[in-house]
Amino acid sequence: MRRVYLDHNATTPVHPEVLEAMMPFFQDQFGNASSIHWAGREVKKYLDDAREKVAALLNATPEEVIFTGCGTESDNMAIKGVAYALQDKGRHIITTEVEHHAVFHTCQFLEKAGFEVTYLPVDSDGLIDLEKLRLSIKNQTILITIMFANNETGTVFPVQEIGEMARGKGVIFHTDAIQAVGKLPIDLKQLPVDILSLSGHKLYAPKGIGAQYIRAGTKLTSLIHGGGQERNRRAGTENIPYIIGLGKASEIAQRDFQGRREHLLALRERLHRGIINRIPHVKLNGHPTKRLPNTLNLSFLYIEGESLLLNLDLEGIAVSSGSACTSGSLEPSHVLLAMGIPHEIAQSAIRLSLGWSNTQEDVDYVVEVLPRIVQRLRDISPLYQKRVSRSK
Ligand code: PLP
């Protein structure tokens, strides 16, 4: 059976060049970067080189980049790190209702510890109202944490404007850019961002490696104590093979940026057109234009996204429903609900997220298989039957 992977926002395969770059660091170049002998010194050079590559992708300086264990750790480090560092100044944090759980649950944790968190609502495109953000900043506000692009809908936030507002009020701005890095141009010399989180496995590097950009001079309390690695910001012997992988993936992302972007946009357009030309009652979720080039979140009205996902899986097609499975009950995505999408329509959503290795043939296969599955599910859907009998 043909296999098509359209879930690159969940994770990406390691790029062959990345794997190749990593391999020597499991055996030949095994040194500890903190050791002063030859084995350590050699590895330290490659560590510095990887840091330069990540910094170059973001147009930052290497001194502003540290490596972490994953994107979730980067988010925790930013939010708790600022909260702990500035709690004497104020205990108010601003975020949105559509953040990834890595941010959302960290904010909830801090609420339990006595911090106040404002969760900004979003409109039907998934965007915040900048005026509401401005009005919610108070003297006690120490941090604004708002994602660069949403993982479920791909909606891209006005990071420039948010950053300017934060800067104008003397508030630190952290952005979870885990879905944006490599897919959108990010120039930290221009963007007023103080802290930025990224994750390797969304970028064709392995799982379990992340990075954090921290603008020089930004106050942050470390969460992990031990040795003095990563400028005392994140103790622990560096995961050299994975860091090398993230460095290589960043270099490739920069090198192939334009080609990948055009490829993804063309495939996404073909997929979207193919679907809506063949299947009625399909609704796009997320901003129609301010969106990641690879992401398509669609509601197939009258059926459940979860059933669609399982049926597509049987045909070798991997997508995501965006639903969280909590204690056996299928809850629709908090992101779609926050956008004011009715429960039923939110539950009928699937996310298709493309990657650089997807082809036109992949897309055409999905466009061929999907109408059959949707029709079959609609034929047994009480909601659809009700609609059909009403229209008779
Ligand atoms: N933030 C966003 C927007 C994400 O999409 C993800 C991963 O799905 C994360 C945070 C967590 O990253 P990681 O899986 O590296 O911990």
Give short descriptive properties of this protein:
alpha/beta; 13 helices; three-stranded antiparallel β-sheet; binds pyridoxal-5'-phosphate; Aspartate Aminotransferase, domain 2; 41% helix; 392 residues; 2 domains; Aspartate Aminotransferase, domain 1
How do the strands and helices of this protein lay out in sequence?
Layout: E1 4-5, H1 16-22, H2 38-58, E2 65-68, H3 71-86, E3 92-96, H4 101-112, E4 116-120, H5 130-136, E5 141-145, H6 159-168, E6 172-176, E7 195-199, E8 210-214, H7 240-255, H8 257-278, E9 282-285, E10 295-300, H9 305-314, E11 317-318, E12 324-326, E13 329-331, H10 334-338, H11 343-347, E14 349-353, H12 360-379, H13 382-391
Parallel strand pairs: 1-11, 3-4, 3-5, 5-6, 6-7
Antiparallel strand pairs: 2-8, 7-8, 9-10, 10-14, 12-13
The protein binds pyridoxal-5'-phosphate.
Pyridoxal-5'-phosphate (PLP) binds at residues 70-72, 75, 100, 102, 147, 151, 176, 178-179, 199, 201, 210.
Describe this structure in words.
Helices cover 41% and strands 15% of the residues. The chain is α/β, with parallel strands linked by helices. The strands form four sheets. A seven-stranded mixed sheet has the order 2-8-7-6-5-3-4, sandwiched between helices. Strands 9-10-14 form a three-stranded antiparallel sheet. Helix 2 packs parallel to helix 7 (240-255). The longest helix has 22 residues, at 257-278.
